[in-house]
Amino acid sequence: MQVDWTIYLTFLGVGLIMLLPQESKSLIRWVALVTGVAALLVALKDYFNYNDWVNAQISAHGALQDGFTQIVNVSWIPALNVKYHLAVDGISYPLIVLNGFVCVTGILFSWNIENRVKEFFAFFLTLIAGVYGVFMAMDLFLLLVFYELAIIPKYFIIAIWGSTRKEYGAMKLVLYSFVGSALVLIGILAAYFAAGGQTFDILELAKHPIAPDVQVWVFPLIFVGFAVLAGMWPFHTWAPTGHVAAPTAASMLLAGVVMKLGSYGCFRGAMLLFPHGFEHWKWWIAWMAVIGIVYGAAVALVQKDFKFIIGYSSVSHMGFVLLGLATLNLIGMSGAILQMFSHGIVASLLFAVVGRMVYDRTHTRQLDELGGLAKVIPFACVTFVIAGAASMGMPGFSGFVAEYQIFVGAFHMHPVLALAAGLSIPLTVAYILNANDKVFMEQDPPAGDSGHGHGQEESGDSPPALPPITLPERVAAMILMALLVIVGVYPSIMLNMIKANVQLFLRGAP
Amino acid sequence: MPVPYFDVLKGLGAEVVLTLTAVVALTLDLVSVRRAEMSVRSRTIGTTAVVGLLAAILPLWQQFNSPPTVLLGGTLVVDDLSVFFKLVIIGLAVITVLISMDYDVGRHVGEYYAVLLFGAVGMMLLISAEELITIFVALELTSISLYILTAFHKGELRSQEAAVKYFMFGAMSSAFLLFGLSYVFGATGATSLRAIRDAVKLTPGLGMSPLLATGLLFTIIGFGFKVAVVPFHLWAPDAYEGAPTPVTAYIATGSKVASFFVLLKVLFVGFAGLEGTTFWFWGHFPSFTSGWTMLLAVTAALSMVLGNCAAIVQHNVKRLLAYSSIAHAGYIFIGLVAATQMGATSVLFYIIVYALTNLGAFGVVAALSSRAGGDEMQNFDGMAKRAPLLSLFMLIFVLSLAGIPPLGGFFGKFYLFAAAVQRDAQHFGLLWLVILGIFMSAVSLYYYLILLKHFYVIDGADHSPIITPTYLNVALGLVALAVVALGVYPKPILELLNSFSYSVVAGCVH
Asked: Whole-angstrom Cα distance, residue A253 to residue A265?
């Protein structure tokens, strides 16, 4: 089984779940979990194989010759020469693995969903399958197909199982993504015909130089189209509302993986195919990224809603990804790719704490109403502190490795950029510590679920009455925390393949 | 010249079979089952109609893959393209009959199915017709059948109003069409499409002479009414809403397919060489030539904008789908504006996808609205729980209309847009229309999701499950499957249509 089986296995899981009766809820959960784990194992196996291969190549030749592992490449729609072309390289592997981990932990954190379980996991796994597909598709048309396949389930997941203006948040998110993909679609059509109307294949198109004057206007279409989903300022406004409205697993997916679809698309769809266009626009991108970084962190600091803090912190951290990509140097870009992985894990963990561990128990997310939870649910506090530390960029966690490299890269591009982006560091520390203080430390009595009719009865009268952290939550949180530390202390497990592939990219090879 | 009646009857075998079936249905209802219960009558006559429709496949099957037959001196042509589209019409009619069998069509069961079959005969003749007078006669046969069917809810004022409105607009459009056709005849001295084309090409100075231009304009206006594009769309929402839902399905699909097909032939065969240009000048000035693409481009733009924007504020599902089909007529016009073989193929492909999707959507609405007490949006609240299977089908149909991959609607639209960009690909001359189309489909996603929200998200007051007959479930399931298949694997149909469309555009310059 090659890594493309992650897609097929996940779809198989969707099919199985559709066939199961509505009532057998725990069977459905287990099927979803087994599907997720199976796909993750397939992904991990290939990940390590690829890692070994890259290391062998580097020790033999000093660098990679061609970073891609071709998986399948068959003609799909000959009329437009669309191909079903899947291939993976050191950029996509970390993201595939990330998707696998977020999928598994997301399912574990959704273990308590009781309403319409069957539909929930069917939509959830469809979304996961679409994401796997995007990270492997090497044909622009195919990429768009998987990309849009991942958009629609989000609407239903948020609108049905979400909270706080869920229908508004869901619609806003989907329309933003769809308008983004509309831009991408225009760009793709233009690129296709500008390159002679021969192929949608990314690797083929990368060899066809597209006329510079066309690149200059097509590049921003595709880049911005994808960057909407990556939360680039000023197109980020869907992100906080969407994250807040979404149920836990969906916010984990949104911040953890779906935003990476955007930045991955920027890299693969826009930067690779339009080097000239990128050169033309890179200062704009870098500065917008910096504004996003600082703005996201500053806004997070003044939020009253715990989940909005995390939502805006995602905007800030995704800004680092875009900044890293814009630097166009080895260290900055490698940092950006690693940041995609790192932020995926951190954001998933933070949203799990906010959404599942705190909100599902207290039914409030207002900082003023929360307090003293460290004694009631200490596990949540520990998780939050670790995830928060990684988010601040503490050494020893993956966030440090990633953001440090981005800063260095940005400094190479222009020192002012790095300095401006550096403003976010104290802000990040402040909003994380502030949230930690208000939610877990200060001794206000938690508000309980007075006035929030969420169905669970009388669970939060006094702090000790909160239900304890369940086993699935513990397991999932441990997995994610372990990943933060592993990549933090031993980054070359991921950084080697990223660096080798970024090097290839910078040499002009696809 | 003696008329070779036998050849004509042989060439029109399917139409003959259907006419006979209509007569049988009338007689059967009158003679044997008039006193039986309503459901028995409906079942018996409906089954007769289905058997007749299936029997009509046989003569068509024999004509397929055999050399084209020309009847009555070029009046009617039976080639693979027309045979294929007659099969499509039969398929649509079969599903319409099946939907009708489950629907209360009033006391005149025999008449209902007979008129429905006459309508099918009209559409099939329309598909074969290549001569102006025959086109007009076939169009009238179709239209008059549909006027009658629209009025079939005899007791209901809405139905009567719809029928009168439809009739008045239809009659007026016929007048426009006839006026236009007479001018075309006056200018070229020919009524056969191919003869008109030759006259246009060979007569110097005829090109866009005032006489021919007037004829062309009025012909397009006449067809504009039939296919309901802005500004000739005013009848559509009322007729769609008021007509019995199976009839709405029939109007929106069968008659649209036939009308678009014949419009394609009139424009691409008859007025080949009069396309003119509609190119936007991005920085350079192309030579402008007037022609019919300009008219079509303007109507396409208006239809997409007005259809989609008006659909947003609708509360009635049938009315919403009416506006959406106005918008879809606009998309289809984009393919006509391209005026190339690719454009023709894309139009043919899209009308098939569009017809299947809309038929399915109206079928679900017909089946559910009669049981849920109405066709307002809120009647469908919580349908996902009450009728999970039909709701799933509705999900597929509506998402296909919205153009979400991997469904037929996505690829259909993509191909239309690609065809338009391909025309004048160097200067992206038609990109303006494509950009408008793509953004308007982003708008359309909003109201499609609102519709799905009623099915999936909002919980209704009534939770009783809705049971629909198995034959209907199977029929709609097959339509849904076809919609998925056309998106996932469009290759076979596309290649077939491409080989056909060559015969249409053989006379075109491109």
From this structure: 17
- Say yes or no for a CB contact (<8 Å) between A79 and B494: yes
A134 touches chain B (CB under 8 A): no
- For residue B198, give the nearest of B506, B464, B497 by alpha carbon: B506
A189 touches chain B (CB under 8 A): yes
3-state secondary structure of A272: coil
Place of tokens 């099939």: B124
Which of A124, A152, A159, A127 shows the shortest CA–CA distance to A33? A124
| pLDDT, tens digit, 9 for 90 and up, residues A232-269 | 888 888 888 888 888 888 888 888 899 999 999 999 88
3-class DSSP state for residue B417? helix
Sign of CA dihedral A105, A111, A114, A120: positive
C-alpha separations of A164 from A167, A305, A461, B507 in Å: 9, 11, 22, 61
How would you class B42 by CB atoms within 10 Å of its CB: exposed for 0-12, middle for 13-18, buried for 19 or more?
buried
CB contact under 8 A, B434 and A186: yes
Which residue has 């225009």 as its token pair? A186
Is the minimum CB–CB distance between A17 and chain B shorter than 8 Å? Answer: no
State both tokens at B241.
């809403």
- Asked if B418's CB is within 8 angstroms of A189's CB, the reply is yes
Name every chain A residue with its beta carbon within 8 A of the beta carbon of B456: 119, 156, 159-160
Mean of the pLDDT values across residues A68-80? 88
Residue of higher predicted confidence among A460 and A320: A320
Task: Copy the structure tokens of residue B267.
Answer: 């424009």
For B470-481, what is the mean pLDDT?
94
- Cβ burial, residue A287 (10 Å; 0-12/13-18/19+): middle
Nearest Cβ partner of A175 from B435, B438, B445? B445
Residue carrying structure tokens 């400094």: A411
Note the pLDDT tens digit of each residue in A166-178. Answer: 889 889 999 999 9
For residues B93 and B53, the answer to whether their CB atoms sit within 8 Å is yes
A210 falls within a domain: yes
Instruction: Say if residues B317 and B375 touch (Cβ distance below 8 Å).
Output: yes
Instruction: Give pLDDT, residue A461.
Output: 45
pLDDT of residue B304: 94
CB < 8 Å & 24+ apart, contacts of B142-145: B142/B255, B142/B258, B143/B170, B143/B174, B143/B226, B143/B255, B145/B115, B145/B116, B145/B118, B145/B119
Is A510 domain-assigned? no
Question: How near does any CA of chain B get to the CA of A478, in Å?
Answer: 34
Direct distance between the N- and C-terminal alpha carbons of chain B, in angstroms, rounded to an integer: 37
Q: Which chain A residue has the Cα nearest residue B424? A: A193
In a domain, A211, yes or no: yes
Q: Do A332 and A409 contact (CB within 8 A), yes or no?
A: yes
In sequence order, which residues have a C-beta less than 8 Å from that of residue B175 and are 6 or more positions away? none
The range of the structural domain enclosing residue A415 comes to 5-450+458-505
Q: Letter for the amino acid at B198?
A: D
Residue A458 has pLDDT above 50, yes or no: no
Q: Are B220 and B292 in contact (CB under 8 A)?
A: yes
Which residues, at least 6 apart from B281, have a Cβ–Cβ distance to it below 8 Å? Answer: B427, B429
In which region does residue B276 sit, left (phi positive, over 0), alpha (psi from -120 to 50) or beta (all else)? Answer: left
pLDDT at B208: 77
Contacts with B434 from chain A: Cβ below 8 Å: 186, 189
ipTM attached to this prediction: 0.90
Look up the pTM and report it.
0.92
Flag whether A370 is in a domain. yes
Q: Nearest-CA residue of chain B relative to A176?
A: B442
pLDDT tens digit sequence for B202-235: 877 777 788 888 999 999 999 999 999 988 899 9
Supply A161's token pair.
């199982």
Looking at residue A92, what is its pLDDT? 92
